[in-house]
Amino acid sequence: MSDHVHWILEAKINNGELANFKNMMTEMVQVTRDNEPGTLNYEWSISEDGATCHIYERYVDSAATMVHMASFGKNFAKKFMSLASVTGVTVYGNPDDTVRGAMEALGPVYMAPIGGFARN
Q1: In this predicted model, what pLDDT tens digit does every residue of 20-59 receive, in sequence order?
Q2: pLDDT at 1 over 90
Q3: Contact 90, 58 (CB under 8 A)
Q4: Angle between helices 62-75 and 18-35 (to 10 degrees)
Q5: Beta carbons within 8 Å of 74's beta carbon, 6+ residues apart
Q6: Strands 5-13 and 109-111: what pairing?
Q7: Residue 12, CA distances (Å) to 2, 20, 27, 53 in order
Q8: Which of the two residues, 92 and 119, has the higher pLDDT score?
């Protein structure tokens, strides 16, 4: 298995905020792509009714995860939380105690790896 940390975050988009949420998402994707080489996947998906967003994030290791979390906290957390509410987070891989502590407020469910493989 790898040191990768990944998760699926589910958020409910506040009524009337879909356009603002999409604009924020575009900016977040650009900043992450341009400044975080340890981010391997950063994929946003939206329900047909535009009410729910799933965000799949995968990082090379816990250190790269914390780089992203610091950037999110500094640049986007307040805006994100004004446009949507987190309804669930499922974390996969091998997050260290620092990552677990940083995610604690979201009430994540942790799923430990038991087998399988990933291709790059």
Answers
A1: 999 999 999 999 999 999 999 999 999 999 999 999 999 9
A2: no
A3: no
A4: 130
A5: none
A6: unpaired
A7: 31, 13, 19, 6
A8: 92
Coil/strand/helix, residue 47: coil
Give 99: exposed, middle or buried? Use CB within 10 Å, 0-12, 13-18, 19+: buried
In this structure, are strands 5-13 and 84-93 parallel, antiparallel, or unpaired? antiparallel
- Residue 42 one-letter amino acid: Y
CA 65 to CA 70: how far, in whole Å?
A: 9
27: tokens are 């900016």
Whether the Cβ atoms of residue 64 and residue 4 lie closer than 8 Å to each other: no
Whether pTM > 0.90 for this model: the answer is yes
Identify the bridge partners of residue 88 per DSSP, sorted by sequence position: 10
Fold of 5-111: Alpha-Beta Plaits (3.30.70)
C-alpha distances in angstroms, 50 versus 3, 27, 46, 81? 34, 19, 6, 17
Write out the two tokens for 116.
């399988």
- E-only strand ranges, the chain: 5-13, 39-46, 52-59, 84-93, 109-111
Amino acid in the structure at residue 80: F
